[in-house]
Amino acid sequence: MTFRSLSPRLAVMALCFGLAAAPVVASAQAFVEFPGRSLYERFGVDAVDLFDLRGQLSRSTVIDVRPRLEYDILHIEGAHHVPLGAPDFEDQVRALEEQHGGPLVFYCNGRESYMSYRAAARANAAGLGPTQAYDAGVADWADRYPGLAILRGEPIEDPETQLITDEAFEARLLEADTFARRVRNDDNAVVLDVRGNEERDEISLFAGREMSAPLENIDTLNRILGQANRDGDALLIFDQNGQQVRWLQYHLEERGIENYHFLEGGLQQFYDEVMAR
Predict the structure, then answer these.
(1) A Pfam family this protein belongs to (predicted)?
(2) Which CATH architecture fits 166-276?
(3) Which option is the CATH number for 37-156: 3.30.420.40, 3.10.20.30, 3.40.190.150, 3.40.250.10?
(4) Any bridge partners for residue 193, and if so which?
(5) What is the pLDDT of residues 104-116, one digit of tens each?
């Protein structure tokens, strides 16, 4: 049945219902793709999407709030680096605003990572801004605008050959039960927690076997990686939501480390699966 086959009154009612439902559908889709957006909007954090950021890139002060290792591997062209965990975070952002102006646009890995929202909220609380959170993440940016993404200090020219493929990344993922079984059965495996201090809790999922090596502490990380590689021990690595390990893979490959796997979806997915049982 089409609108033409309806009576005028019913056609108008159907059209109005469709228009009213559209925002609901769009809102639900945004919640699925960006689960933190509606939460932080209540605290005055405005989100900017991929295409809008491209349009305003030249007149924005873009700030990457991830650990240095992630920024050095891949970042948006022209982005400044101020890690969210820096003790003088607000002072560094204020200095950038004074030098370059606004708006201040913060980004991280996006989606399930809320660091960009938290950075914008902290800047707002410090009286800085206007601020925005680009919440689609750096990976989406590199996929859409590879020429405006900096990989190891150079613009991406050929994404197919320069970026680690989804298949190569997914081949290193272990689902929760397999990861836990590997931890139990391999006494020599090095279980590595690369979450930042602000993400870490007091719960030990793997009987205290995990070693802490936040990506912010590159010296500790490299020391553990080097020892495991020399000893021929497997590396079983997890982060908070499965996004940081994507960039850690570049670091592992560059160091010639081959025996490693990641916890699929990070601890967040692990928790969700356990709670769903």
Answers:
(1) Rhodanese
(2) 3-Layer(aba) Sandwich (3.40)
(3) 3.40.250.10
(4) 212, 238
(5) 999 999 988 899 9
